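Dear colleagues,

As part of the handover before I leave the project, I'm documenting each prediction I ran so the next person doesn't have to rerun anything. This entry is a single chain, and its sequence is reproduced below.
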Amino acid sequence: MDRDQSSISREIKKNRVKGKYHPEKANHKAYVRKHESRYGFKAINENKDLEKYIVQKLKDGLSPEAVSGRMREDEKPWYASKTAIYEWLYSNRGQRYCHLLLSQKHGRRRRKKKKTKRFLIPEKVSIHQRPKMTILDFEGDTIVSSWNTVSIVSIYNPKTMYLDAKRIPNLQPRTVAKVMKQMFAKVRMRSVTLDNGQENRLHKRLGIKTYFCDPYASWQKPGIENANKLIRRYIPKKSDISKYSHHFIKSMVEKYNNKPRKKLRWKTPNEIMEKKKLFSLKTKNHLRTR
């Protein structure tokens, strides 16, 4: 049949009738499922028992997906898919029950902003070509604001757990490259690993080797992702980053770098950076005169 065995297994499991698979019955089941996904909400309008069941389950705190799944478990004579329930709720007949949804939505959200125009990042080198990480290799990322373009650029050393972060007015590639270069000047480093965000297009200006994760694979730089979660303790998600001053972010970073870490045998990231002589002369003098 020139089909993968898992595809055949899923087809049999999904479209069999009373434990047996028959092609004509399977085709009809697939047709009914497709029809219900498109026009299932009309069946809810026509079936009072089905409507009453859905409303009661929504009042019990279930999501439309849970209502649909529970309907199969209860072996009811009728059925409505998750999509059909949402369509019914967003229709004139179901609007009055939208307040029962956990998200309190009364319709689909329309995209407010146009998608950012995507460009290929020139001359990028894959993370798979990166040599084994050493104490001189860093990871970089950005934390964005949901209110405006004000963001935070952060860099992190997985070996020393050292973190640096700065607020930037926008995510323009030129701005990001400039601020990253300022942070790189504070430390000795060999490379930085970044994601595929358009703000990293000018990576050649950084003056060091840069490596890029695979698309949608932020787990390939886990150190900076974990550090950003700790930053979010001070600056929660959906916050307006413009309301947090440079002084606040600087003090937050200092607090982070002066905290003893179990991984470092209860030394601080700053102590390890000084011991390994990873600070530039300018930064080292600043630490001594604080």
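Residues 23-46 form the longest helix (24 residues). The chain has a mean pLDDT of 85.

All the best with the project,
I.
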